[in-house]
# Entry
Amino acid sequence: MKGTGDMIKNIDGIIFDLDGTLWDAVEVIFKSWREVVISHKFNNFISIEELKGYMGKRIEDIFKKLFPDVDDKSLNIMMKECCIKECEMLKRDGARLYPYIEETLKYLYKKYPLFIVSNCQEGYIETFLEYNGFEKYFKDYECSGKTGLDKNNNIKIIMKRNKIENPVYVGDAKVDEEASKKANIKFIYASYGFGNVDSYDIKINSLKDLINIF
# Structure
């Protein structure tokens, strides 16, 4: 891609979002959450299309928005059950990988250390890596479910822990754009994902575009 040479010249790592960037697990998430929510006597769960609009946000923020009248204790129980059911289904069935993912990762990890930072629960990234056999491509990962922190602070943890100073973040949503700005790193917008953004440093229409950039 034209005009990207100077921007990537000093890059020392690539950090990826997960949902909407590396795979699309929304169907599994929808089925697992809906099953749990109905078991708690809430029969009017949102549609799968509505759920897509929440992708990238922390489950705590999603459930507080969806169930504002439910007390914290009951909400936490329901969220934990959703996370368990979701990972059970993903470990069994996996989810839809975006095209060219392994080809792209295989190329990139030989040139840069690769990382994942996601607003997901603990165990979710591990499930993605184990089910698909992608552990070998990623040096480290972090999530809000483990640290309790938002995405920009988890990016900073990855940077500090791995002694990188100038990574890029690849993501598909507004939250990814905002986290990149707060962490003071470049943002690559994955336009094929779930969200829309206001600004970005580079836009990709496929994971394979990263091979041309890097």
Observations:
- The longest helix spans residues 72-93.
- The CA atoms of residues 64 and 75 lie 8 Å apart.
- The two ends are 9 Å apart (CA to CA).
- Strands lie at 14-16, 23-24, 96-97, 114-118, 140-143, 168-171, 186-190, 202-204.
